[in-house]
Write a structure and sequence with these properties.
Elements: H1 2-9, E1 20-24, H2 31-38, E2 42-46, H3 51-62, E3 66-69, H4 79-94, E4 101-104, E5 114-117, H5 118-125, H6 130-134, H7 138-142, E6 149-152, H8 163-174
Parallel strand pairs: 1-2, 4-6
Antiparallel strand pairs: 3-5, 4-5
């Protein structure tokens, strides 16, 4: 868990003061108290089964309108991929398309980044099933036309001149991010 938090904290496009560890309100989750304290992040406890409600409650408490969702089973999450996803999400607002959900799929499992509008999640909550609420974005995946969504597909190959600006942007996001390649815990 420490590696995930540290990698998120090294992102350039994340508001570090708004990092929230949203965990079930169970005694087994007490272990997360130490992580919140050690890494100076917020800890939110909520429903064990209704993960969507837990996230919505955390958004309400901390006044979060859009959030990046990184699952706890992603110890090697790449900070530059989070930053690139945030840039694409923000870019959609500047261009007027106002995404409600952005996800990555082009990388190995454990590199999944999701950015979700709290307003869209709240709207979907009213119509989705308990199974959808347990898995948060399952409804989005099964009903892609119900929201404004985009799957970010990033190529890391240099095949054409068109690839150069994207690769330069990725390189700039990787600067100062040596932690990704270190052996720190």
């Amino acid at each position: 868990m420490g590696r995930i938090i540290k990698n998120v904290q090294t992102c350039h496009k994340i508001n570090r003061s708004k990092i929230v560890l949203a965990v079930p309100d169970t005694s087994e989750s007490n272990v997360f108290n130490r992580y919140a304290h050690d890494y100076k992040i917020k800890l939110f406890r909520g429903s064990e089964k209704d993960v969507m409600q837990r996230i919505l409650d955390a958004c309400s408490k901390y006044r979060i309108k859009h959030f990046v969702r990184i699952c706890a089973d992603s110890p090697f999450i790449l900070p530059w991929l989070i930053d690139l996803s945030v840039l694409e999400y923000v870019r959609s607002y500047r261009l007027g398309s106002q995404l409600e959900y952005l996800r990555t799929e082009c990388f190995p499992q454990g590199q999944n980044v999701e950015i979700i509008s709290e307003k869209a999640l709240r709207r979907i909550y009213q119509i989705c099933s308990p199974k959808d609420r347990e898995h948060v974005t399952l409804y989005f995946d099964n009903h892609p036309h119900s929201i404004k969504m985009k799957t970010l597909d990033v190529s890391l190959t240099l095949d054409t001149k068109a690839d150069i600006p994207v690769l330069k942007e990725i390189i700039s996001l990787m600067k100062g991010n040596a932690y990704v390649f270190s052996k720190q815990r």
